[in-house]
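Q: Got a minute? One more chain.
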Amino acid sequence: MHPISVHTAVTIFAILWSTEARDNVLTDGCATPAYLDMGEMGILHCRISADFHSIHWYPFEEIAGKDSVINYEQHQKNGPGFESGEFDIFPNGSLIINNVTIKTETIFTLVVLHLQLLQLPAYYRVNVEVRVKPSRSYPVIHQCNDRSELCIFRHDGHSDLVCSVEHTRPMVPLLWKMRRNREISTSVSQDHTVHNETITHSSNVTLLAPSEYFTYSALFLCEANDPTNLLERTESSVLVLNNNLPIKEKTAITRVEYGKTLELACGDDTFIFVWKNSDTDQVLIYGIVNEEYVALQEGFDHGKKGSMVISSAMVHHEGTYVCVSNNGTAEDIRQYDTSVIIHPVPEFLFIEGCVPGQHCALETSGEGNLSCQVTGIRPEVSLEWDVPEYDTTITFGSQHLTVKENGDAFDIRLNSDYSISDATKNKITVECRTAGPNSDLNQMSTKIDLWINTGTPIPDESELELRFIILISISVVVIALCSVGSVIYYKVRSSNRDEERGTADEVTPMVYTNDGKRNIFLEELKSIYKKHYNSVHPIPYLREKLFSIQSLFVDSSLEVLEQGHWEAFGSYADMRSDPRLNSRRHIIEGGPGYGKSTLTLQLVYEWCEKVEGSFFENVDILIFIRLRQVNGVRSIYDVIKYALCKENDAIQSSDIRNILRQSPRVALVLDGFDEYIGCREYAPDDVTTIIREELFPDLPELDVLLTTRSSHVPASYPPSTKRVRLSGFNHESRVKYLQKVFKKEDADKIKWCLRNNPILELLCHIPLFFVMFAHLGQDNVKPEEFASATIFFSHVIACLHNHLGIKLESSRDPSNLMGAMFQETNFALIKLASEITRRRRQWSRNDLCDRLGEPSLDRYLSLGILREEEVIYGGDSTEKTDVRPSLKVEFHHGLFQEWYAAHYLVTLLQNEKRLGDDELKLLDDLDKLEVQFMLRFACGLNKNAAEHIIQYLQDSEGFESLGILCKLEKEGAIGNVTQSIRNIFTKGIQINETNNGFLDRPMVQLMEIASIRKIPISRVVLNAAVSPVQASSLQIVLKSGIEIPLLHTLKELWIELNRSTVDPEGAQRLLGYAYTCEALRTVRFTKGVLPFSGILRFVKGSRKEITALWCPFRTWFRLNMQSGKWEFEDDGSELSESEYNAEVDSFNSVFMTDMDYKSTAISDCS
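A: Always. Here it is, folded:
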């Protein structure tokens, strides 16, 4: 008896059970139907338990007498379909079809035989439908030119709308619908057609006469019925605009200032909207409110409820704009006639012979010519002369008005002859003012006095001012006498009461022991320190409003210098516990206004209050010295005596020396090394010795903490010194400060200002700028106006003056402010500030009284622009008799001095001609990093000076970034933040190794702003500034420690490797970063050695196309992104390993020995 084969058994059971099986098909073991894509691999998904004998697949519904195509038995696969490669099978029974064809569209049957032969087989049938997806995965509206997003169709009244889905299997039915706000209607007339091809089908639907359903505009949807998921999107929308409808609506007149934001409202409760330029008939922007919009013209954006926003209005934006809207039930049309206003700079009328911004008096013989002009104004205005109070003694004869175009604006000049008929008058006041139909947009006038030459001299302004001062002085004296009398009266009464009570104290001498002197010394220190940290005034002039340091202080970003690289650091509170700062010597450095002194004051406060875990917790005696108050004192003990204990005669310098020498642990905080005379040249004093030497012999266990600007770190300091850098206020720091100091509504207003101006937020990264901005108040502040540091600081100066009632005629325009400054007769102050170029920061009061005048000096002291404090001076010996205190005056902060010095610099550089030798020498002698804000302010104050400074910096190696920041100041004068940033990045930027973090950081922040605001960055060149070891696919770390995040609008990255050899991992990081930046297509490496191979691990499988180029010396190579091999760029031939080694040898022979390699190699890899 022969055994029955598996095939025979399956056939017998198929015949016996075919009828019953057909009625009771088990379909729960496999998914059916199965939709498979033609030309792709397909899977028939099944789930069969492991308890089976064998599995058999048939490409038929009726399997009797037919062979299976693939079998699976005892973990072995066989069958003709498996051997041909057409089919495969998973252990769970799922069938793999390696290439789906039209023949695959059938019913497949799966038969499962169980381990016991008498158990009935299981049958599973799968209905396979083959899909063919269309080339465009959405319904295509023919009038949209294949646009996949919302499109607009300008309807002529005759055309139909056609929508189709072509070449699909199965067919996709289509339907036109009309959308009215949230409601969708299908009651539109349409015609359906289907075209059947051999394998695929195409369906079309036509919307007949769409104009019957709207007057101005309407939204139609073409919807696909797609149960097989052939399409990625089943709806396409078209916004139809009536192209033949005449617009007769009333036109609204709209005016906008040049560079400001213009927003035009569309309609009430708008659903769909279309904005067009009526003059050019161009559609600008259209969309669905809160869903989707499309801008067709650059510079136009959408706002709330369908409004149109022009973020920076320019002259070419003038014209008539029309909005057509539909809210689902009603349609509307609005029309605007828009023109751009340009205010003149400065914003006043010039009269020839007068000093701009000052009251003017001209001497005349009775007749002559007057010239009045205004420059840079739009729209065009007229000028006229007027005599107040209808004075008929002066008449104007021949008048000639000239108008010249000045870019987008106009220069207007009025020349007039005049004659005075009444020679007995001494003075006649006349006024030049704007006139004509546009004068209401730029209302300006300037008055002058005409003094008739009768022998009476014209009163000098100083004479008038003197009279005023005398009057005020008399009033002050009277008030003072009354006050003194009152004080004497109450003193006498108080003394009499004490005598009557018999409470007068006896005067007894005090005798101090050594411990007693130590305690007195400590109490004296803490008393002085408490005065310091309980009397902090964020704004200089607010003397009456003091804060304690703990009510103001918030942590800022910190970095620590570790093995030559700056690394991010947690909090100042971790300075004591972090092992990277394990030392007794520390330098805290930062840029101007970064909070170095504030941090030291917080540390002093924590020592006095014995805060647990604080930096000086284990210090017995803390000495806090402000170095700006010390000049030439040799003995550190004399410094301490006269800076901290001068009022207590019981404590002498010798006592201080003994107390400190006997104390277990002493710490010395030296605040402001950059303001100390010893930082300029070697000074033979204890302070200099302590800073430069590892051990101070008199106090060998001394802890030292020094603060300084990063541009003035001591030239030499002990190797054990740890350096910490303040990197400014990040967003978290600013929020904490606002929460700590301000009410919620005030804090929210400040945060709103920062959000609406990235340049303002960039400036407020500097803590001093942020604190001043926050505390000065934001009444009538428009954040978009702060387009540069110059405009911001002009606002600060104006606020200081306005606080004392000195009204500067300034609209936050730096050029106008400069005129107002001269109006305040402060040229002497400007010249004083210019001495910063000689590193002079302090003057005696007597000196300034002579140079400024005592009233002006007192005024600037009251404003807080200047401050007066006691400075300790030393003589040629260390005897205490040679130590003397003296009152000195200095600018409240170095930024104030740089502001006024910038005005002086402008007077030297404002001519259009080329710079002379004297001007070039002045710029050469400047410490550009120390006075970077002086240079930036000057560029914001005067365009000609800016051109000279920017060109000079671009020609000076290492200052390209400073040049770009200066360019931003120059561009910021137009008040257009976005356009300023766009102009900066049009030609690309360069960051050099010689830049420090305080130039790198604003440059990186500018790049971040550009990336976020979708502003293209054409090229970034990192010139020997990159640390490949610290790079990653998410950031590049500069040698200054500043991190460059992903820049998604960067197009080209150029990395100069500074003669270094990069290992494969470092190259992978750099290339990975390039791949992660969305718009970046080219990355170049020069003047360094990249690996021969092994670079592509980071980017394998990426679909993004990128070109990687490398030029070690003279020849450019391109990386083949498929093979990972280098190729010659010119002919595409592969670089062999021997050629690679020869190139590296050539590189080493030149670059590793030639110290002046930069002068010879740049042109080789240009």
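A: The radius of gyration is 41 Å.
Q: Perfect, thanks.
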